Amino acid sequence: MKLSVSIAQNVPDSAPFILRGPYIENIKKAAELGYDAVEVHVRDPRELEVEQILKACQEEGVTVSTLGTGLGYVVDKLSLTHPDVKTRQEAVKRLLDHIEVASYLGAGVIIGSMRGVISETGQFKKYEAYAAEGLAVCLEKARKCGVTVFLEAINRYETNFLNTAAETLNFLTRFNTPHLKVHLDTFHMNIEEADFDETLKMTGVALGHIHFADSNRFYPGQGHLDFKKIIATLKNMGYEGYIALECLPYPTPEEAAAGALRYLKSLL
Description:
Elements: E1 2-8, E2 19-20, H1 23-33, E3 37-41, H2 50-60, E4 63-68, H3 71-74, H4 85-105, E5 108-111, H5 124-145, E6 149-152, H6 165-172, E7 180-185, H7 186-192, H8 196-203, E8 207-212, H9 227-237, E9 242-245, H10 253-265
Parallel strand pairs: 1-2, 1-3, 1-9, 3-4, 4-5, 5-6, 6-7, 7-8, 8-9
Helix pairs in contact: 1-2, 4-5, 8-9
């Protein structure tokens, strides 16, 4: 298992991304710390200087594990379940751009917040169908580009759609494609899942990506989650994907990045 650190530019202090500022500088910083990869969070992937990012990664000996798409929802309110059809179409277009860029970077694409919320709970199936329709378009693009999409289970306080690993896994079954995997996050799991070990085993080979953050969303080792046990379960499952650090940047981004790496390397 390889370790990736979240990087972002122009985001609020309260956002759970560790290294902030220019992407190239953060790629160099991640490499200096000893990370294997970076997870790039960006509102619109067309803003990225892809050739410069590739060059920096090659020079520093790191990769881009994943592109995070959630800022498209946070900033632009784009989602696959939005009641307005034009907004849903814009969400799909934005995700297609992410997939296109990811194909050049050799990265996967996370769909977390951009799946949206279901605004009319009495019409759950209708909004679920909206999400499935948009995701199907994205998956066709992912197939052509050779990119894997990771659909994230997110806790009930942030969305009312796909909160648990079981719900996310069940939703995935309708697509029958190797280009779609489950994405779990230990912060969300701590709210939604009764048993980490059983949840990971149930997800099994469908697990494609995982975020680590402690119970308080600080970096691992700063809360009460048993990461030694979580890592042991992942190893026993034969998990070979990335462990990406998506945590609050406290006490400072540099301290969080270094502390997380130091703690997890002691367990791997």
